[in-house]
Design goal:
Blueprint (H helix, E strand, L loop, with lengths): L3 H12 L7 H33 L3 H21 L2
Helix pairs in contact: 2-3
Amino acid sequence: MFNLGSIFEIYNQFLNNFPENVRWLVSLALAVLIVYGIYKVLRRQFIFLVLLVILLPASVPILKNIWEQVLQVLQFLVGRR
């Protein structure tokens, strides 16, 4: 199963490679890149996502779970200062 704790641990190890005063900038840049990547995917695949929700109602809880995990990662990245 996907574990956000291990992702956060790997991120903290990655962040320790940078000086203390630029870590917030690295976190902000990663958050912006994630949001931009999600935007590009949704823009290109939006019709397929709509069809998935319409044709397969069981996908709604899965998509909600994915969205919640993405929000947790973004909150973790932006909350790092």
